[in-house]
Amino acid sequence: MSTFSAPPETPATALAPANSAIAAAVREGLTAPRKSLPAWLFYDAEGSRLFEQITLLPEYYLTRTERAIFQAEADRIIAAAFQSWHQATGDGQPTPDGAGRLRLLELGAGTATKTGILLAAAVRAQGETEYLPIDVSESAIAEACLTLTETLPQVNLQPQVANYVTDDLAIALHDGPTLALYIGSSIGNFGHDEAVAILRNLRAQLRPGDTLLLGTDLVKDTAILEAAYCDADRVTEAFNLNMLRRLNRELGAGFDLSTFRHVARYNREASRIEMHLRSTRTQQVSIPSLNLSIPFQAGESIHTENSYKFTPDSIRHLLREGGFAVTHTYTDPQNYFAVTLATVAA
Ligand code: TRP
Hints:
about 350 residues; alpha/beta; Rossmann fold; 8-stranded mixed beta sheet; 13 strands; globular
């Protein structure tokens, strides 16, 4: 191993317990022969703010395309979720006392800006609607709740700050259908095995007739894909570098941000955009709170993110492995993005 232990007087126990998951992930990722950091580390308050900016960039077609699909299909999506429940349970529409209402649950809700379209459709169909946003970012979820309280008062909010990647989900029981949302192609930020584990973690909280709406970016021309992750205004670069700023703040790490460059390239064999932070020089970066000093060669990089691109076939296979069966696929005229509705497989 190419790391050394800092002297014993280094306060290795000074970390707050909340940072222990971060510490473990950073230790594992930066001491591996090929360095990496997990994508969930992006989403501190600043990272969540930068991510919202990414979704507004002209090059970043994903968000506006998925939003357009929701705008065109929201009422049909809600109807299809009820239909799936009806087929599995025989239950019809909700009764006037509210029994049998559809609730929405969302993994990685963020500020839930697109979710409002689906919530509004659920409110049109049944009036009051329960919504359970789950996200690692407390600031993002607080903003989501603030906005929704003002714009959709018929929505009952039950927010959860949780990491659905590292922790088992714990969702309250419900006497009607649940429509789970996992949108924004967030599933594409995980490798196959982790993606399957996330789907199974969710699946374990659902019942036959419940549904999942999955948003996925589709395979397309390399230039279009790469531009989406390397924008002219360099917002994606700031987002990527913010991960190092977070480690400096929360772990007392000594990353000099001016010595790392943002790199994004499409790997067609693996069907994924790969994002890296490349060290421009040979250097050692110390992380005293972890008793680590991390050596970098000039040109060596930290792999910070993958963004997998899908085909209708790869979506179906992934869902099948996660315990879901596809019932409907919605896409845009250019076939840039897919929104897939799947039911809990028997
Ligand atoms: N899941 C989306 C995507 O892969 C959003 C996203 C996550 C993203 N991490 C990102 C976008 C990093 C840009 C850079 O596109």
